[in-house]
Design goal:
This protein has 155 residues and is mainly beta. It is built from 2 helices and 14 strands, in the order βββαββββββαβββββ. It has one domain: Beta Complex (Metal Binding Protein, Guanine Nucleotide Exchange Factor, Chain A), CATH 2.170.150. The strands form 4 sheets. A 7-stranded mixed β-sheet has the order 6-7-8-9-4-3-10. It has a 3-stranded antiparallel β-sheet with strand order 1-2-5. Bound molecules: zinc ion (2 copies).
Length: 155
């Protein structure tokens, strides 16, 4: 790492896997896509992304090769998710909750794959149907929901 870049370190659920990142993420957001929701078994997924070279993972892990664009990494002991390599763009997502407890905050800038949502979130952030243009998407958004909560008409 570069000397003047601050490191942030966190762990999986059981503590067997340690993740260290160099500096703040390039971007943070919420993903509502089907594969994130199913892999995390959660209605929405929070993510922060770094260049692959800025992240180090130690401890025994398992990688999922189910999705072509994602190599999801979890702890071999507790099964807790820690990261997601994006091979096509040489980037890696580290889940913010892995780094919770470090000094690094979570500052999401948007919602992605919002059309696939099961949960509406009325937080005023842009809600991209798939992805913003900077991430290779159309940049198209949907309107702000009236309130947060389970989206009955979705799915
Ligand atoms: Zn673990
Ligand atoms: Zn996703």
């Amino acid at each position: 790492m570069v000397d003047d870049v601050q490191e942030y370190t966190g762990n999986c659920y059981c503590g067997s896997v340690t993740v260290t990142v160099d500096g703040p993420p390039v971007a943070s957001a919420y993903c509502h896509c089907h594969s994130c929701r199913k892999w995390h078994a959660a209605p929405v997924n929070a993510w922060s992304i770094w260049p692959l070279i800025a992240v180090r993972i130690s401890g025994e892990t398992i990688r999922s090769f189910t999705n072509e664009t994602s190599r999801r990494i979890s702890c071999a002991q507790c099964g807790g998710g820690v990261a997601n390599i994006k091979p096509a763009i040489n980037m890696i997502v580290v889940y913010p909750m892995v780094l919770a407890g470090s000094d690094l905050g979570f500052e999401p800038v948007c919602h992605v794959h919002y059309i696939e949502r099961v949960l509406d979130i009325a937080d005023g952030l842009p809600k991209y149907i798939e992805l913003p243009k900077q991430l290779g998407g159309s940049g198209a958004t949907v309107g702000e929901p009236e309130r947060s909560g389970w989206c009955k008409e979705c799915r």
